[in-house]
């Protein structure tokens, strides 16, 4: 007859658990995660997703600095051009579409695309997340300056809706042309 097979796990003495890891930024939090770049233990609040796994905020900032190539003058150029293009785009979308909501949607998309390409050319294709936010703010400011008298003088809610839609579409299309999405950074 055959003998019963003995389970290897039962025959071995129990192993001691690995030492508890704590987040290097939050020593009171236990974790099993490690940064893929520096191997420091990190808690889920500190973990940032990357193509190679989770990384710590310090490694993320180090990588981000490599890709921030914008010069200080680029921020001024981007804000000024975006404001002018935002104003012109809002004006043209209102004139061509006769104040219809679809004009704000289409005009915002066209303005965002044109603005991104012109600003990318004017800044020498340098990039930075702050540069994108600066240009989006400039474009929103330019469109706001155009729409503000219409909203205040008419008191018509549709003008306010057109302004919000134009700015939202323009900003998101602009960011998409830069290869990113508008979202607030995780803290």
Number of helices: 6
What share of the residues does DSSP label as strand, in percent?
5-15%
Order of helices and strands: HEEEEEEHHHHH
> Strand count, sense and closure of the main sheet?
2 strands, antiparallel
- How much helix, percentage-wise, in residues? 55-70%
Poorly predicted spans: none
Secondary-structure-based class equals mainly alpha
What order do the strands of the largest sheet run in, or round the barrel if closed? 1-2
What does the radius of gyration come to?
26 Å
Number of domains: 2
Rounded to the nearest angstrom, the distance between the terminal CA atoms is: 66 Å
Number of strands: 6
Shape: elongated
Mean of all residue-level pLDDT scores: 82
Describe the structure.
- This protein has helices spanning 8-11, 57-67, 72-97, 101-122, 129-154, 157-177, and strands at residues 21-22, 30-31, 33-34, 41-42, 48-50, 53-55.
- It has 187 residues and is mainly α.
- It has 2 domains: 8-66, no CATH class; 68-177.
- It has a two-stranded antiparallel ribbon with strand order 1-2. A two-stranded antiparallel ribbon has the order 3-4. Strands 5-6 form a two-stranded antiparallel ribbon.
- A hairpin with a 2-residue loop joins β5 (48-50) and β6 (53-55).
- α3 (72-97) runs antiparallel to α4, α3 runs parallel beside α5 (129-154) and α4 runs parallel beside α6.
- The longest helix has 26 residues, at 72-97.
- It is elongated.
- The protein starts with 7 loop residues before the first helix and ends in a 10-residue tail after the last helix.
- The mean pLDDT is 82.
